[in-house]
Every structure is written in structure tokens, then in C-alpha cells.
Amino acid sequence: MNGRTTFDGADEAGEPFDEAQLAEVEGLLREAALVCDPVPSALRDAALAAFALHDLDARLAELTFDSLVDAAPVRSAVEAPRMLTFAAGDLTVDVEVGEDGLLGQLLPPQKAGVEVLTRPAPEATASCAADATGGFSCAVDVTGPFALRVRTGDEVVVTEWLRV
Amino acid sequence: MTAACLADPRTAYDDVPYTRGGGVERATVAELLKSAVEGDQDAWRALVDGLSPLVWSVVRGHRLSEADAHEVYQIAWFRFAQNLGRIREPEKAGAWLAATARHECLKVLRAQRRWTPTDDPQVLDRPCDGCSPEQTVLENEAEAERADRHRTVWEEFDALGDRCRQLLRLIIAQPPPSYREVSVALGIAVGSIGPIRQRCLRRLRKRLTDRGVL
């Protein structure tokens, strides 16, 4: 980067630029953006509502594996299911997102309540239970943003929100 | 080099303090974040109003479909809320949001590339709804002209290359993002923002001159 003059008052074609002219264009564009592409009010409302998520009395399980990003691409005629792994301390939640809903596995294996959140509100959209082997199956449509809330014997864990 | 760029007042986008309560009380993002963590709903509202345009600009720059754009925006804010008490550098909350939004946008694009062999026309041709004069109540000729001008500016902006569109979309957000936020939102060095901005605005100016807007 050293030695490269980037503010020499000339553009790529070597013509001098006039910052006042550029600022005028920028101003026009800013004005147009306010009219043509403002933040939709429904989205502002959703962001305001998200405040309810900050104080959920729960531990956050971070996304540690996402097949979309971390798996090697596989040539296949059919869409492979999305595989996700969340981790919160010792607890791991593996989830496979299929057409029929979510198939999951808790590690270490244990009984737990599993809830699917699809809105920034405490109420779950669907719930299912993990049996003693830690396996669970939730018939739920997760086409939009969602998070899982897992209630084990001694704690509540919520996964990071994501979409598939 | 970076310092020199930021010292240039024409191109510096300093960390703008966000306004709380309609411009009466000014507070930094870090302070708002701290208050929000403690449960202050007004502080959260101020953060949303101050940083929403930034998040929306990141999403819009990536040419996602309408539905994808809305979901990515929500994911960014839901995650931000979830992580509120864990953000290690509260003064960089905007950068945190911008980086999260960019990351999610790239995921969407990656999923599209993986599963859709052909380009999704919905993604490529996003209509410019708000600018259409027929959708606005036009009280007089001057207003009609202004709406027409907005539409032309937006059309020409939309026709710029990806790089220019992404960068300009960000720096015109209101309130304007800082250079650091633009940098993480685009994954480019702070030092390249000024030069790219100049190049892109020149291009747009040429287009607008050709269209008779300037």
C-alpha cells in the first residue's frame, strides 16, 4: 500500500475530481434512498421486538457447525439436508433440518424439553421432547428465522437464531 | 495511510454519535448498549433507530430477494439482542451488526449457488417500488418532478456494478455509518473506502449527467 497515492485529486482516468460535485451526487442518492428504499416499518418493529430476546434467562448455544458453510460440497440430484451443531459448554445439540421438520440429538444423551421459537417472543411455536437417548423429532416448518430452546434437568439453553 | 484517509474531512465518516430522544440527548452507542443490557427499552429503541439503516444497507447491497433480505435483517437483530451482554467492544456494536448481516447475506448467496443452477430472476431484478410516481400522492408538478428525479437516480444507482452499489448503499445510510462499519460490512480495508467512493460517485455522476438529472 505504501507509495500508492489514493488522494491525489485525480480519478482513474486522470481527470481532476471536484469533491463538491461528488458530494452533490452523494446527497442526491441519499435523498433517493430515503424515498425509494427506507427500512420497512415492519422490520423496524421486528428489531424493536427483538429486545425481548436479550434477557431470556438462558445460556446461549453458539452455532459451531453449519453444513452450508463447513461441509464439502456434495454433487447430488436431491437437496441434502442442512446439518447444524450448536454448543453451550458441555451440551451439544445436533440438528438435521428436513422437509418434515427437525431431527435432533443432544449430547451427552439426556431427557429434555425442546421448543422451537420462530418469533422474538417467549412463547414457543412448537415443542417436542428428547428421550433418554437424547434424540428428538419436531414436526415444524422452519422456513424463516428460528431458534431452539432446550430445557434439560438443570438449565435452559437457547441456540443462536438462524435461518435455513 | 489509514490515518491520512481519516484526516481528510471530505472522506472521513467519523463514528457518529447516535441521537437519543429526537436529538435532545446525545449518547454513544456504547452507552446505549450498556443501558439496553440493563433493560432500558428506550436505549434499545435508540440503537434500533441508529443502526437499522446500516443493517438494511448491508442487506440491500447484496441483492437478495425481498424475503431473504427481510429474514437476514431480522436474524442480525435477533442475534444482536441475544448477544447484547456479551459484546466485548460495545462501541463497535454497529460493526458487529454489519459483520453479522454480511455473514448471513453471504450464506444466502452460497445456498443459492449450491442449489439453484440458474440465476434467480427475482434476485436480479428487484423492483423499485417506493420511487414509482403513481404510488405516491403527487400534489403538484414540482413534487412529480422530484419523484421522477428520485426514480432516475435510483435506477442509475441500481445499474452500477456490485462493488459500487454495495459501497454507495452503505455510505448513504442515514445516520451515516463509520468507516470501520463500512469496512467490516464489505470486508475491505478502511483505506480503500475513500478511493472507491470517489470512483463510484464519478461513475454515477456521469450517468446522471447523461440522463439529464445533473
Provide a brief overview of the structure.
The complex is a heterodimer of chains A (164) and B (214). Chain A is α+β, with helices and mostly antiparallel strands and 164 residues long.
Fraction of residues in H or I helices of chain B: 55-70%
Number of domains of chain B: 1
Report the sheet-strand fraction of chain A.
25-35%
> Can you give the mean pLDDT of chain B?
81
Shape of chain B: globular
Q: Helix/strand-derived class of chain B?
A: mainly alpha
Give the N-to-C terminal Cα separation of chain B: 33 Å
**Annotation field: number of helices of chain A:** 3
Largest sheet of chain B: 2 strands, antiparallel
How much of the sequence of chain B is in beta strands?
A: under 5%
Low-confidence segments of chain B: 1-27, 117-125
Estimate the global geometry of chain A from the Cα principal axes. Answer: elongated
SSE string of chain A, helices as H and strands as E: HHEHEEEEEEEE
Helix vs. strand class of chain A: alpha+beta
Give unreliable regions of chain A as ranges: 1-11
Radius of gyration of chain A: 24 Å
Order of strands in the sheet with most strands of chain B: 1-2
Percent of residues in helices of chain A comes to 10-25%
Q: What Rg of chain B, in angstroms, do the CA atoms define?
A: 19 Å
E-strand count of chain B: 2
> What's the helix count of chain B?
10
